Amino acid sequence: MLCNVDAKQLEWIVAAYLSQDEVAINEIRQGLDLHADNQKRFNLPSRVVAKVLLFRTIYGGTGYSFANDPEFGYLGSEGWWDEKITEFYAKYKGLYAWHERLYERVVRDNGRLVLPTGRVYQFQVYHNRNGEVRYHRPIILNYPVQGLADDLMKIARVSLWKRLHDPRWYGSPAGILFVNSVHDSIILDIESKVWDNDRDRIVKLIQCVFEDVPKNFKNLFDIEFNLPVRCEITYGMDWKNMSEIK
User: Fold this and answer.
1) Is the Cα torsion angle 191, 197, 203, 209 positive or negative in sign?
2) How far apart are CA 244 and CA 171, in angstroms?
3) Which of these three, 91, 109, 126, is where a domain ends?
4) What H or E segment, with its residue span, contains residue 208?
5) How far apart are CA 165 and CA 173, in angstroms?
6) What is the DSSP letter of 58?
7) Does residue 148 sit in the same domain as residue 224?
């Protein structure tokens, strides 16, 4: 039995944490369906488009990139997409301010950036068409979010492994294998008999692992992580037939 565990909205949670955007933080804490809210607020054709707008914009996506993407360009011109990005930043002002500070810091420190966890990035310059020296803004906006998200997933993976071996939590990992971890997911291969007999207990343990990520982050780095971390769990005998745990 495959059991796939996805960290829910992890990149957005990390972007909200690093920027401390008050609107984003309140939406996450309240469990708001922000994609549906943004669809309505920005007059977008679907929730999916609202989701893409969010995840591209937190990495510096531009109206040009949307307008020239065949999957989304038909929705509007470069100017139309620029307006949507402006509306997005008007809602998430803290995110916009953080993006500006982040880029300015990298330029000021000659390409160097240090995250609160101690992770260090050294960004390289490039020459634009006019021969001017620049730093690649989307990369600068992307790496801190992806890097901290990876740190959080490492915490979750180690915690899950330890709790499966700890009698106080589970203590019987026989029949449960860690087979993969892709980006914001952990994939387990669980013997069908083990899953059938102990599914509820395993699911609860996994949920607790993710709920405890902020506490473990504090223990490791002595830094508060002031947002909840949640997960979505699906299972099935193969990738084509996966069901979600409600």
Assistant:
1) negative
2) 25
3) 91
4) helix 192-211
5) 6
6) T
7) yes
